[in-house]
Amino acid sequence: MARTSRKANRRHPLATVLLIAIGLVVTGGGYALLSSTTTATADTSATSQETIEEGQKLFAANCATCHGMSLEGTADGPSLIGVGAAAVNFQVGTGRMPMAMQGPQAMQKPPQFTDEQTAALAAYVASISPGPAIPDPSLLQGDGDATNGGELFRINCAMCHNVHGAGGALTEGKFAPELTGVAATHIYEAMLTGPQNMPVFNDDNLTPEDKRDIITYLKYLENNPSPGGVELGSLGPVAEGLFAWIFGLGAIIGLMVWLTAKSN
């Protein structure tokens, strides 16, 4: 009876080997996972630092003359301390910076830097002093509430940019640019940073979701033609009234001349 009990409690000869193998697999797998995670983090950190260093070189060669080597600003350019990556991405990405010449406002033109160089400049400026960041792509898809965006746009933006985003004149040679064809990233960054004559709409004024809705509204206008036919520049009643005055009154005068000539 005792011999039977000992046989029942005796381990299989391969049990110890199996346990050791399982232990090695678990330990090795855990170590490999930890090593890969650490390596990925180190690579990301190295890439980020490399990007910042590249941005520093570009800034020193192209921007420091006006903005100062430490972003402190000069007589020819404002300080960039605290503007953040979003402002740099907007100004450089739209070609407004570097400026071609001094004027009432920086004019949009083809960008002088690649997307990678622009990102490096933005990363460098943000590394010196934090500020508004480049928006998350999830807010730029144009999948928000266009109705809410239209209401917010009419309340906050239409007095300068026109209800249709066609732009408009301001004072002293300045103007609000047309918003058709503008990248969603740049629209968001303009609201967030308030470039030139534009007021700043930070997240306390317009939440990220509000900005997303405004972008949705503008992209809806851009992608859907006017149901009324010819838009006449989308300038509203002034253009429409001028059209009616010239062509309507011209048609009436032409008809009167024709009738007069016919009666004679």
TrEMBL record:
Membrane among keywords: yes
Binding-site list for heme c 2: C157, C160, H161
Subcellular compartments: Cell membrane
EC number: 7.1.1.8
Binding site for heme c 1: C63, C66, H67
Cross-referenced Gene3D superfamilies: Cytochrome c-like domain
Protein origin, superkingdom: Bacteria
Chief place where the protein resides: membrane
PTM notes: Binds 2 heme c groups covalently per subunit.
Membrane topology: Multi-pass membrane protein
Catalytic activity: a quinol + 2 Fe(III)-[cytochrome c](out) = a quinone + 2 Fe(II)-[cytochrome c](out) + 2 H(+)(out)
GO molecular function list: heme binding; iron ion binding; quinol-cytochrome-c reductase activity
Domain Cytochrome c: 50-129, 144-222
Gene Ontology, cellular component aspect: plasma membrane
Alphabetic keyword roster: Cell membrane, Electron transport, Heme, Iron, Membrane, Metal-binding, Repeat, Respiratory chain, Translocase, Transmembrane, Transmembrane helix, Transport
Keyword Kinase included in the entry's annotation: no
Transmembrane intervals: 242-261
Subunit structure: The cytochrome bc1 complex is composed of a cytochrome b (QcrB), the Rieske iron-sulfur protein (QcrA) and a diheme cytochrome c (QcrC) subunit.
Protein name, entry field: Cytochrome bc1 complex cytochrome c subunit
Organism: Herbiconiux ginsengi
